[in-house]
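Hi V.,

You were right to ask for the full record rather than a summary. Here it is.
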Amino acid sequence: MNDKNLVLIINAHQGYIRNIDDSRDFSAENELLFSALTSTYIPLADLFNKLADEKIDFKIGLVLSSTLCSLLSDPVIIDQYENFINKSIELGNCELLRLKNLPEAENAKECLKRFNSIKESFVIKYHRNLLEQFKILAQKGYLELIPTAATYAYLPHYQDLTEAINAQVETGLYSQKYFFGDTGEGFYIPYLGWSNGLEKILKPYGINYTVVDPRSLLFSSSRIDTGIFRPVRTNNSLAIFAADPDGENCFTDEEGFISNPVYLSVQKDIGFELEDKDLSVLERKSNIRTLTGYRYWCNVEDEDEYEDAPLYNKDAALEQVKKDAAAFVNRKTEKLTQAMEYIKDDDAVLVCPLSAELFGQKWAEGIDFLEEVIRLIFSQKKIKLNVCQNLIEKQYTLPKAELYPCSGDDSGYGEDLLDITNSWMIRYVKKAAERMIDLTERLPSETSLKGRMLNLAAKEILLSQSGEWPAMLHSNQLPDYIKEKFKTQILSFTTIYDSLASNSVSTQWLTEKEKEDCLYPWMNYRIFSRKK
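Predicted structure:
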């Protein structure tokens, strides 16, 4: 009997924001990573370990970008995070005193309980090494860890600079091997951004499959009888899975799951509600307001009702989670069942890439939802959770297709990453990349001090290509900080370029910059060289 396979891929990536200057308050920037750790990454590890201990058979794809892995393995950042958790627990104890005999007290207790649980998991159970937990789960067969581009760059922007794409792919693969011991079978293209000829770059690195936006497949010049429910292959036999067209719509649309008024509001947080004196335990060096994780109120349908939002009822929310999980599973089961009518002699596959932010950050009950989905699929046995690497046994007999250039954003062409808010960045990045490629040609075998300079230059180029920077500018998230960070990266590369041209190198400046951007300790600048 042929199987109906649902592939869930959780995509987690983080811009490389590493703030270690104790003289400045970086709470707004740190909050991006620390909130993700508290709300998503640690709870995901807890959930996966819990299900594994209960012998529940599940398989999930997980993308952990190399910048995120670098941050999660950075001892300075980990120390900062542990201090953040301790301060959050102190804040919770203060909240219990402030809210004594008030209705919000019960929700404050739940928040404090969650922070204590997070600390116990992270410090005691996982010994502050979250990556090792995901590695162990992958070795046990529960997770497929999928590499992605080094700094989650939007690859179609560099279609005319093959060496720049090579550098992103090669660094991403090497990072995957460095942190997890294996590069796996697949490669997750950032933003599902496909461009012509990308298969000629990916396949020589031993990559056997990738995932594209469904429009890339459905608008191809080839007729695909099985639609998005079976993989196809390119001319050089790179297997291609098309993502579910529904994407995250059932979560984020106006009537999507996360907008239900019974769920916890992730925006109405005491970090923006209380006076400074009530938040003094956080010991911030400025008046910057950030999310604290202490949230007591439900979603509201109208912004005018924001101030009078009702108190959150956890039991009611968990009841709704069960209904939404059942609706999600039923929808995917129905799709796969209908697909089987047209796929008579083979398995049907539905690939659903989902942003990690959905599970805890954008949706407080997202982890509970994921658990319920996994349990439902396991108990009903109508469909099975699988991963892409298990579904390419017939890779070299799949039908061929010429894919249509497309990406996974709403309009399909990556406009959000090259619009009026961020288009000024691309000319600096491309010029720097061209110069880096030229440097590898003129200085092919440098070691010692010049070699260090070139390795740092390569890192600065990769960082300046980060897809997070234009994405954050587009959404007006920390715009001043991102602009300054990007300019610093371009100026650092330019300093190196000019220093090599004049044969004058500042050892002190180089050492300080290496400490500031300490990711990719294995970096070899020749990744930007032209392939012979």
